[in-house]
């Protein structure tokens, strides 16, 4: 990425020295006006429900009255009758508060951290160090409807887990200090609270954490997307009802038990040896990819191997446990040797035909199908028995009154018993960690094999996968590993809070002060190992690191009565010491572009390329010729900071030029 040296941009160029008086109308006319209501400027205040209401207004304008949703009109339109007080659903103490946490806009953004990244300029993978609720809100505009698969492994709420405590109505740092999550020196202690079973709101607290995050996850999923959620008996029942509410009960795909360990701890009279994976689709457009049917029985080869693959001998052509049919009881003559079902004599066969029993020996194939199979190499004779071949990539199918050979790989559907194999247990996940770090840093992480299995059935080779409880970053590891196996280009987005590790833990002793430190280092080491094992493949083993940050733009203080002071502050909207690349990425997110957009700096302009479209961002003064050069390149959108203009006259002139060229332009 070609860019100038990062520098503070808080000193606007050519800014007049005139300061606004107490009368807003006396603001200097030679200074471009800065209105805090500009759409891009306030876009970092992600309004989850506001955007949904806008879409609803486009579809059903008649249910709005004076710009407000009229529920009675909606009920009338839908022919809805008054509901009874009793209704089925999941309710708990604090549910309305959880919705408030969902609806509350975020004033935060994501700041790039190239120093902690791998291949920052070229990779398509993302790692976000942040509270996941804030991160999910920030990602809404750029990634809504673009995530093919989400996997999360949230706290199981065992009574010893810490859960997130969501209240960002104060500034992020002020709130964390007030609640003890940050010390007076500003060092992060925690953004989560221990949820003991002695707590009267034990289940409620956990549900309050999950509700807003799952709502935001639902929006991010593509229409053919799917979410997998690991959980155990502590919250499985509650989570199922919550997901039915958010994703729709009709989109529940299944609950898959997973073996955790063969010898589990006993609870009462039973040993608990499994947890679950709940699976929900975004809609009925979801189609799982069926895996190739692996069977060690396919070990024989013949002259058709190149086209049909290996074959196995399924069973003899005759079979006694099927319903008897006279049409399937016939003699077969192969080179003068006669074969009869059940290896009986001619008279015994005739007697059987005459008797017509309910069940007895007969052939599995009709005479016509047998002749076709024999002619096309699907028959094998061994001694006195006839066997049929089952090929890996070919089978016989009936077509009208004849038979044809269909060439396709044999596949199998994903089974709810898929994860009861010990290869998906915690024992193997610990081995995965030990191979990477040489020590047991995590106790309950999931194995790479499990995530690869889910990725195989749920994604294509270009899908984006999100994990917003990243933990040890198993999901990222699995994405890179599967790409190396099938030459895929899958991308991942990981989100992990910089949660402090226990000072007594192996992770802390190994030098990892936070969980996110472990996550990032695992991706680095796993990627390097995969690349070393596949030196000739062009694999993306990198990741861009972003960290939660306050906005680079000043927020309008609605409780400040000193309007003159506010206007003076808004002469330059940028905060002091705002970093140029931080500003560019914040604007990128406000524009709804992906964090992986290509960025390069050329002649005073940051050029962004995303999904085959170009965009321009201007932070400092440009000449008229330089603005003309932007117009000549016809970007999909151009965003310019007001301080880049000498005065309102120049700003108006540039706006008209972009308008005449039919180009999208916005100033901040």
Automatic annotation (TrEMBL):
Pfam families: N6_N4_Mtase, PT. Keywords: Methyltransferase, Repeat, S-adenosyl-L-methionine, Signal, Transferase. Coiled coil: none annotated. Residues 147-485 form the DNA methylase N-4/N-6 domain. GO terms for biological process: methylation. It comes from the Bacteria. Residues 1-43 are annotated as: Disordered. Its EC number is 2.1.1.72. It catalyses: a 2'-deoxyadenosine in DNA + S-adenosyl-L-methionine = an N(6)-methyl-2'-deoxyadenosine in DNA + S-adenosyl-L-homocysteine + H(+). InterPro entries: DNA_methylase_N4/N6 (IPR002941), DNA_methylase_N6_adenine_CS (IPR002052), N4/N6-MTase_EcoPI_Mod-like (IPR002295), PT (IPR006970), SAM-dependent_MTases_sf (IPR029063). Belongs to the N(4)/N(6)-methyltransferase family. It comes from Moraxella lacunata. Transmembrane segments: none annotated. GO terms for molecular function: DNA binding; N-methyltransferase activity; site-specific DNA-methyltransferase (adenine-specific) activity. This is site-specific DNA-methyltransferase (adenine-specific). Residues 1-38 have a biased composition (Low complexity). It is an enzyme of class 2 (transferase). The keyword Transferase applies.
């Amino acid at each position: 990425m070609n860019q100038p040296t990062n520098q503070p941009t808080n000193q606007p160029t050519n800014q007049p020295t005139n300061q606004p008086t107490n009368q807003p109308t006396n603001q200097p006319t030679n200074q471009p006006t800065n209105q805090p209501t500009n759409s891009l400027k306030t876009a970092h205040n992600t309004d989850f429900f506001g955007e949904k209401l806008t879409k609803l207004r486009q579809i059903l304008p008649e249910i709005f009255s004076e710009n407000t949703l009229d529920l009675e009109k909606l009920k009338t339109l839908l022919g809805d009758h008054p509901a009874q007080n009793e209704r089925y659903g999941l309710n708990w103490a604090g549910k309305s508060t959880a919705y408030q946490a969902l609806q509350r806009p975020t004033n935060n953004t994501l700041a790039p951290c190239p120093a902690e990244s791998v291949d920052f300029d070229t990779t398509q993978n993302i790692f976000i160090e942040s509270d996941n609720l804030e991160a999910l809100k920030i990602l809404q505009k750029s990634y809504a409807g673009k995530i093919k698969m989400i996997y999360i492994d949230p706290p199981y709420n065992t009574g010893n887990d810490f859960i997130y405590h969501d209240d960002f109505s104060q500034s992020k740092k002020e709130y964390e200090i007030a609640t003890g999550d940050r010390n007076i020196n500003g060092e992060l202690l925690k953004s989560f609270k221990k949820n003991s079973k002695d707590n009267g709101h034990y289940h409620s607290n956990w549900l309050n954490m999950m509700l807003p995050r799952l709502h935001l996850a639902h929006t991010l999923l593509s229409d053919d997307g799917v979410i997998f959620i690991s959980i155990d008996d502590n919250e499985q029942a509650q989570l199922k009802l919550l997901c039915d509410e958010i994703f729709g009960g009709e989109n529940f795909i299944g609950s898959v038990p997973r073996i955790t360990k063969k010898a589990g701890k006993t609870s009462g009279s039973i040993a608990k040896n499994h947890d679950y994976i709940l699976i929900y689709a975004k809609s009925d457009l979801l189609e799982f990819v069926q895996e190739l049917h692996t069977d060690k029985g396919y070990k024989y080869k013949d002259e058709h191997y190149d086209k049909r693959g290996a074959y196995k001998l399924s069973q003899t052509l005759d079979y006694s446990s099927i319903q008897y049919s006279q049409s399937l009881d016939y003699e077969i003559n192969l080179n003068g040797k006669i074969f009869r079902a059940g290896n009986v004599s001619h008279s015994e066969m005739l007697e059987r035909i005459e008797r017509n029993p309910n069940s007895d020996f007969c052939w599995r194939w009709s005479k016509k199908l047998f002749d076709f199979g024999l002619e096309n190499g699907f028959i094998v004779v061994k001694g006195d028995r006839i066997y049929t071949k089952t090929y890996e990539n070919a089978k016989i199918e009936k077509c009208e009154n004849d038979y044809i050979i269909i060439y396709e790989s044999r596949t199998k559907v994903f089974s709810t018993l898929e994860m009861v194999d010990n290869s998906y247990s915690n024992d193997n996940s610990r081995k995965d960690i030990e191979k990477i770090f040489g020590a047991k840093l995590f106790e309950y992480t999931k194995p790479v094999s499990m995530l690869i299995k889910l990725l195989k059935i749920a994604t294509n080779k270009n899908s984006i996968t999100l994990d917003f409880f990243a933990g040890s970053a198993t999901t990222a590891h699995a994405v890179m590993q599967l790409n190396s196996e099938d030459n895929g280009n899958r991308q991942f987005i990981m989100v992990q809070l910089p949660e402090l590790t226990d000072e007594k833990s192996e992770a802390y002793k190994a030098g990892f002060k936070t969980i996110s430190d472990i996550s990032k280092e695992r991706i680095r080491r796993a990627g390097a190992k995969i690349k070393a094992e596949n030196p000739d493949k062009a694999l993306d083993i990198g990741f861009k690191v972003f960290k939660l940050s306050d906005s680079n733009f000043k927020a309008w203080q609605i409780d400040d009565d000193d309007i003159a002071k506010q206007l003076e502050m808004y002469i330059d909207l940028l905060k002091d010491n705002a970093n140029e690349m931080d500003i560019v990425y914040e604007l990128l997110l406000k524009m709804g572009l992906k964090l992986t957009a290509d960025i390069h700096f050329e002649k005073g302009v940051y050029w962004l390329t995303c999904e085959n479209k170009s965009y321009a961002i201007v932070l400092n003064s440009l000449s008229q010729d330089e603005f003309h050069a932007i117009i000549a390149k016809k970007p999909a959108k151009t965003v310019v900071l007001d301080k880049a203009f000498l005065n309102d006259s120049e700003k108006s002139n540039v706006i008209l030029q972009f308008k005449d060229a039919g180009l999208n332009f916005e100033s901040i």
